Amino acid sequence: MLEFKTPLLSDKIWVDGCLKKSGNFSCAYSFGNLFVWEPVYRTRILKLDGFYCAKYYSRNTGYIFPRGEGDLKSVIDKLIEDASDCGHEFRLYELTEADRQELEKIYPGRFRFEQNRDDFDYIYLTDNLISLSGKKYHAKRNHISYFKNNNNWSFEAITEDNLQECFEMNEKWLEENLEKDSEGILKESRAVKTALGNYKELGFVGGLLRAEGEVVAFTIGEELNDEIFCTHFEKAFASVRGAYPTINREFAANMLTSYKYINREEDAGDEGLRKAKLSYRPEILLEKSEAVLIG
After folding, report:
1. Quick check: helix, strand or coil at residue 171?
2. Residue 238 backbone zone (phi > 0: left; psi -120 to 50: alpha; other: beta)
3. Could you tell me which of 72, 93, 109, 278 has the fewest CB atoms within 10 Å of its CB?
4. Residue 277 falls inside a structural domain
5. Using an 8 Å Cβ cutoff, are 45 and 4 in contact?
6. H/E stretch holding 212
7. Cα separation of 63 and 65, whole Å?
8. 58: confidence class by pLDDT, cuts 50, 70, 90
9. What one-character-per-residue DSSP string does 232-291 give?
10. Using CA atoms, how far apart are residues 189 and 178, in angstroms rounded to an integer?
11. Pairwise CA distance, residues 246 & 241, whole Å
12. Are residues 166 and 200 in the same domain?
């Protein structure tokens, strides 16, 4: 039986190293994402023969598709043995189409694949989120113009000097939105607090938006590799028209120009969120599947 363990901040270095080598674009693998959501998903991690492996215990127990360099088949064989020792089926999460093809090549006919639309990542060209050019972004530009023309506003990077204001803004946002989905929002709020509480240690990058001196929106995320940045959280007061598209655009324009892509994660099956993410016209809709061992 393999010894998976609770992720610690000290694990960030080796996890990041495995991810940079793999060139993977999925936000589910980023260490910060894994760390802040660990209390919700009960994720455990393991460095196995040069690969980053993780195991979920919160839903159908299973493993993420391993990332790293080396003998992939040997690593998956060991994970299969671990599942057998633990008495549960062997299930892999977070497979891209390339992963699915590779798994089928290594284990022909031994897996059943289940695509999950709710888990697809929305990946955008950074230049598009900054320029917002063309008819397809007309509504976004109008909302941003309204915000800028009707507020004494400013954008600034999140630092130790203004981090507490993000905590306070998150609490106000929670009060205003809790009744919409109390369980889901409470879980997310817990993850946000963990992110803010370990902001520097996790290497997060973020920005906030002010209107009349008050924080009305903030966003935080982290680098996945040299080419892509993952946005983990974005909060804005719905009552402040244009705050959401403005924090999105200003963060990209002021702090993310060195990245070709921005991954804004999945929609988790929320129809409103799906509509909003599609409205920004993703360059890549990163399809992901689950694989279940059948023989």
Report:
1. helix
2. alpha
3. 109
4. no
5. yes
6. none
7. 6
8. confident
9. EEEEE-TTSTTHHHHHHHHHHHHH-TT-SEEE----TT-HHHHHHHHHT--SEEE--EEE
10. 10
11. 10
12. yes
CATH assignment at residue 143:
3.40.630.30
When divided into structural domains, the chain yields a total of 2
**How far lies 267's CA from each of 55, 106, 208, 242, 272, in Å?**
22, 31, 22, 21, 9
Taking only the tens place, the pLDDT of each residue in 76-132 is 999 999 999 999 999 999 999 999 999 999 999 999 999 989 999 999 999 999 999
What does the block give as tokens for 143?
Answer: 């909302």
Whether 115 and 125 map to the same domain: the answer is no
Question: What are the pLDDT digits (tens) for 247-277?
Answer: 999 999 999 999 999 999 999 898 999 999 9
Q: Both 207 and 251 in a single domain?
A: yes
In a domain, 2, yes or no: no
**Could you give the 3-state DSSP secondary structure of residue 211?**
strand
Tell me the C-alpha distance between 28 and 23, whole Å: 13
- For residues 248 and 134, membership in a common domain is answered with yes
Q: Which domain holds residue 218?
A: 121-265
